[in-house]
Amino acid sequence: MSFGYTVLGFGSGVSGYGSIEATGGTITESGVYRYHTFTSSGNFVVTAVGEDANTLEYLVVASGGGGHRFGGGGAGGMRNGSAAASAQTYSITIGAGGAGNRNASPVVDSTSGNTSSGFGLSNTGGGRATNAGAGASGGSGGGASASASGGAGTSGQGSAGGNSNQSASGGGGGGKGAAGKSATSTSQDAGTGGAGASWVDGNTYAGGGGGSASPAYSQGGAGGGGRGAGTYSSGGVGVANTGGGGGGGAAAPSAGGYGGSGVVIVRYQIAAA
Question: Bridge partners of 122?
Answer without folding.
Answer: 117
